[in-house]
Amino acid sequence: MSENTNKTVLDNQFGQQTDVNNTNTESGPISIDDLEVNDPELAALKKQMMEMEQEAAKLRELQAQATKAISDEQSRDEADARSVYIGNVDYATTPEELQAHFQACGLINRVTILCDKWTGHPKGFAYVEFAEKSSVETAVQFEGSMLHDRPLKVSPKRTNIPGVSRGRGRGGGYYAPRGYFMPRGRPFHRGRGRGRGSFHSPY
């Protein structure tokens, strides 16, 4: 009987050891969230890293915007280098007539007649954009040529002409044919090429 008692005691001790081992085995890995609760420094570090990532994303966005702005500015400057200013334009002159007048100078991309923003009346000057820069030299030779019995003033386009602005603002209206819808402050252009084309807004 004493042997049975000793055996029972040994079994109980083994069972207790088994329970302890099972407890350690079943415990899973500690998560980051649990560590953050117990370690404020780790939580602060994670927050700081997230803020740094957000700042880096904002910086990349600003750099992309700056690059696009520079590219757009260069494109406008390049287009200006292929354009001429036409002054003393009769108010009844149409873009088609200006295109026909200067088509001998080379392929024309765009004809723009400036109008008063508030009244919609032509201001008496226009711009002609050519496909090639060399066409500007030829167009300048048309200085004094007659259109609607008025001598035209022709010179290379300058972006700093007083009273002329690239953006929206006073004096930013554009000429459009009668009955054609014109969004406020938007230019209307001829299609590329010498053939007939309808007025349209590329913006």
UniProtKB/TrEMBL annotation:
The record's keywords, sorted A to Z, are: Coiled coil, RNA-binding
Q: Has UniProt tagged this entry with the keyword RNA-binding? A: yes
Could you tell me which SUPFAM superfamilies the record lists for this protein? RNA-binding domain, RBD
What Gene Ontology terms describe what this protein does at the molecular function level?
Answer: poly(A) binding
Residue span(s) of domain RRM: 82-159
Keyword match RNA-binding: yes
Protein name per Swiss-Prot or TrEMBL? RRM domain-containing protein
Q: Which organism is it from?
A: Furculomyces boomerangus
The organism's taxonomic lineage, starting at the top: Eukaryota, Fungi, Fungi incertae sedis, Zoopagomycota, Kickxellomycotina
